[in-house]
Amino acid sequence: MSKFTINRRSLLKGTAAVGVGLATPTIFSSKSWAAGYTNEPKGGTVTFGFNVPQTGAYADEGADELRAYELAVEHINGGGDGGMLNTFSSKALKGDGVNGKKVVFVTGDTQTKSDAARASAKRMIEKDGAVMITGGSSSGVAIAVQGLCQDAGVIFMAGLTHSNDTTGKDKRANGFRHFFNTEMSGAALAPVLKNAFGTDRTAYHLTADYTWGWSQEGSIKKYTEQLGWKTAAAVRTPLGAGDFSQYITPVLNSGADVLVLNHYGRDMVNSLTAAVQFGLRDKQVNGKDFAIVVPLYSRLMAQGAGENVKGIFGSTNWHWSLQDEGSKAFVKSFGQKYGFPPSQAAHTCYCQALLYADACQRAGTFMPSGVGAALEGFKFDGLGNGPTEYRAEDHQCFKDVLVVKGKENPTSKFDVLEVVEVTPRSQVEYPASMLGGELGPYNNGG
Amino acid sequence: MRFMGMNKQDWILFIGFSVVTLLGPIIFSPIGAGYPDLLQKFAIYGIFALGFNILFGLTGYLSFGHAAFLGVGSYTAVWTFKLLSMNPIPAIIFATIIGGLFSAAIGFISLRRTGIYFSILTLAFAQMSYNLAYSVLTPITNGETGLQLTQDDPRALDVALGRDYGAVLPSSDLFGIDMTGYPGFYFCGVMLIICFFISLRIFRSPFGMMLRAVKSNQNRMNYTGLNTRPYALTAFIISGMYAGLAGGLLAVTDPLAGAERMQWTASGEVVLMTILGGAGTLLGPVIGAGVIKYFENIFSAFNDNILEQAFSFLPETLQHIMVQVSSLFVGEGWHLTLGALFMLIVIFLPGGLMEGMRRIRNLFVSKPPGGTGSGGSADTPVQNPA
Amino acid sequence: MSILNIVDLNKSFGGLRALSNVNLSIDKASVHAIIGPNGAGKSTLLNCFVGRLEPDTGSVTFDGKSLLGIKPHEINQLGVSRVFQTPEIFGDLTVLDNVMIPGFARRDGAFRINAWNPVRRKGPIAEKAMAMLKDVDLDDKADQIAGQLSRGDKRRLELAMCVVQDPKLLLLDEPTAGMSRADTNKTIELMQTIAKRGVTMVVIEHDMHVVFSLAHKISVLAQGTVIAEDLPEKIKGDPRVQEAYLGGAHL
Amino acid sequence: MDAILLQILNGLDKGGAYALIALGLTIIFGTLGVVNFAHGALFMLGAFCAVSIKAVLGLEKVTLDPTQTTAWGTPLEIRQPYVEAWFGDLGATLLEYSVPVSILIAIPVMLLIGIIMERGLIRYFYKRPHAEQILVTFGLAIVLQEIVKSIFGANPIPQPAPDSMQGMVDFGAFLGHEAGNVVYPIWRMTYFLFSLGVIGLVFAFLQFTTFGMVVRAGMADRETVGLLGIDIDRRFTIVFGIAAIVAGLAGVMYTPILSPDYHMGMDFLVLSFVVVVVGGMGSLGGAVLAGFMLGILQSFASMNEVKEIIPGIDQIIIYLIAVVILLVRPRGLMGRKGVMEG
Predict the structure, then answer these.
(1) Of B343, C9, C57, D84, which is most buried, counting CB atoms within 10 Å of its CB?
(2) Can you tell me the mean pLDDT for A247-257?
């Protein structure tokens, strides 16, 4: 019999030696060390990472985001009809890629879960060498990925995220948001609500019980109470509650005459369906017509609620029926490629890709601090929202906000919302210090 | 023949496992999995599944609530970072302990029932933890956003030792070695090897035999003078500690703890990992964890561009058709592949991937005549499938 | 000198009186058989010894300690082992494991975390288990999965699992039911050897051949009461027994 | 008082859905001994029966109008549903009543799906361990929902109730309350009555037909029934088909309440298992009782007055009840000993 001699100490030593021996070459060859910043592109291409929900409730929204990104890459690389590049006020991009490099991209599934989204973003950074991560359809995910990008030293261009925290409490230097937030929704909606419903109203809030919901509830409460409205109750509902009827019934005899649904996505579809089913849209309370408000609308989701959205007010970042040159160019370019109009998620993602590429071109580098400096305080126009500014203090875009209403007589299945008012940027601006948080310094990794 | 009570075959298994783990960055890079984050996930979910296997594989108790312990481990670790120190050692120690205590409480109640009633009890506890962590317990868990580090965390121990992280957000480091990237993987990998070793010892020990007896016949156990409940509870607590450790390591490599880690789908995932690899086998759960994480991270990343490149050797129309067909199964369709894989495995390989390997091995290696009767077999441990 | 004392035991199920005022006293190191027609209450009586059933009234004392109100595993730890009518074994484990587990139970008590050192084929427990398997002719099947054994082998395995614990009292519920004549004879021999080691046995049995080759004393149970208790040769001739058992036919 | 009455009504329609899903699930447990994780998927398939039928009824003749273009530059499409073009008013009515019409079509479709599932997959798993049954049916559920997703997308698809059933009933007025205080949507009342009807039919079927008798005997003691020389296999197939129909109908009728999407089955899966277990494995009465009980308790827990006392109670009430009941009654409300405890 062979003698099996091995003692613990030499075993450990051996293992450690193997570990170090292996780690050394890979660490040096992989990222940072030699480079000036994380994933500095060395060849003829630069890699963008598109991190969108492909499974779960927001999969359709994610698919639309991905279509917009592919279109943006095509346009940046000089393909297609150029889309909004033609209307964009900055003319730095020439349709030959960015900084002389062709743009390529990798995709991943966030599953609308922080963990999965971070894992997917890490893959893009660690394996695929992505220099920028963008996309997403929820604030939790956006904040989680933004934190990751800050640590890793790449730029994060947020997709659809509406919570104040993304550029408020949880803002990071490496993160930028084009989409609007709950504060702006509240500021934009309040005057319209006042015109439509008057100042003597009692609101009942149903709020998705997580950070975005609270943020939304807080903003709407703040601005409607300034109008003189009273708040009867603000009830928290579990995420993904399915049928919301048990939360709707208490509204019936509560004395409230406005119902505010601080829900998004499927929850919005379900709570709105239940509210309409319980006759709230046609109800009379205190001698007034009962009203329902959905502060954050999404056209994709409004389609899911069908006829229930008719006449219901809300706000949105962008809508395909806008008639400015930028929007028209984008809708045309998107519609010809895919056969239907883009959603607001697609729009914000397309803009973010373009804005990032443009900033890199202007900065002449992909280094986060350089790109960031080019984005900070950047004023631009021609991307569908009128004159816009990336505010330096919190990396939040300030632009006009759309107040929309469910359309009474839609002409097609995409035509469910009509724009009631474009609230000018000056009305939705707020001081950066109001939402707290610290940007901190840029992290270039490396 | 024996060293530390373990025989040669087990040492070979253990050393082989350790070598493969530590060579992970090289071995897994040809299949596109050699980057730190996925390797960390392999190791961490390997630990989670190893622990779950001690409960489910040995005692047969099917828990649908183990994700709760994973989540508790993560929260504990992040809080340890915030309050005490960025060193991962205290974090994982606390995560393991709290995971153990939490599982002791839930196990004590749930083990009063058996079969599917036990499963539903564990599921109910985990779902309650998840729902509360997402909403009411937000002051502790930071809800949907997940618990994160901030610059002004107290970090009492670090402060006492005079460590200052300056203006940047700290990340966890082991005496100066940053726990992200490959060093983070080696930290998790060493933990996995330690956990595998413990698991191996348990499998071969009288205690492991007792746990198998719990699965086999509780009635006979009682009439043999053995108290089944504490055995099952111990297994439950051990697996809870493994889960707590895994959760702690998730926080070490990436200091964020989200509530969705505790959702029932996450509990289901570890069940699937274990069964997919082969419940009750030593290696199976680790392999199952690897396969599922690989699908989740790599298959979901295939998009039409990649497919077009992959099929670029075909004529254009055929290429188009192939891209169309295969895009159903990758990218946004990766769930479909996973579902189909579960079905195929269970239908054709009820013992999981380990059974598949055994069958393949049996094709090539003819069985030694006379079974275990021949030379040296007196030293083989009680027949346990590896 | 008696090891097990049963005094005034009563047990009813709903309105049915399964045991009424049963008194039994089992002598140390003896083989005591309990016979009786079907439904006489034999299994109910046995279940009251081992914590499976709680009698309504009465007492069961073993070695000076009451067996009532304590759990099956505690009763076993006091030295009482039981063989079931349908074999209860660890079907997923090997034959050797099946016999080693009771060995560990005897050595380590009802619960002990012994998780570090591997189970070995050397050492007292394994060696004793192998010797026991040799006694029941199962040593060549030590590595087989127990669930795949034949019915007769399973019964002998269960017997081995009980005997290897060196019980003070061994309860057997029809140990030869369904066995071939040859197997039955082998089992009788085996039990005789065990009895010679001084193990007290209580046997419930239908097969009179088995009863009369083993028992030192026989109690006859009918309709929940002990109608006779005596030495085997006396029981054979007792008319009450014949009446109860076979409606008058001779044994 | 009115608030409580409203929540009871609310619990009844919710409970109706829970009871229907749990009923099918427990029939499959009881007779076939199979833990069917694909049962939620059957519910979802039922809902998508309604979606497909509406889509088929709503197939449109598309004429391109080259003189006008859409905002994205393609010619404007003028659409008219074929049924309307062919059948006029009758067609319009059919489209309007697509959900009730779907019921008639969903019955054979779901029966067929059930039979294919049982013959093709489930029957090979009667004797396999529960863990394997769970895994294979879970895999099947994922496959089914991903197929539905690839056809219909991930977004919810609105499925309105017919106009005539969209109003409210003044329930309070019946009971002598002040008019207008306890009003309830007609469709939800319909759902409750419908669920009662289906439950009644299933019970009657099991109680009064010989087929049902054999099935009940099979639930009590499968082996013995098998020994009687009854072709239990064929009956099992039909039992599975019936369970599929019940789940499917629950899904069809639920679409106006909850716009269906591909994931709705998974959302109901965990809940329906809790209902079945609380009711007691394999107990039909238990499933129905537990379904309604949990529905009503869930409604009560969502009341502001209750939530003020125990914050977050509405999020955990179902699970809390499950824990309490299982600790007090080891086998649920009406479970039998030995079923699914191994």
Answers:
(1) C9
(2) 88
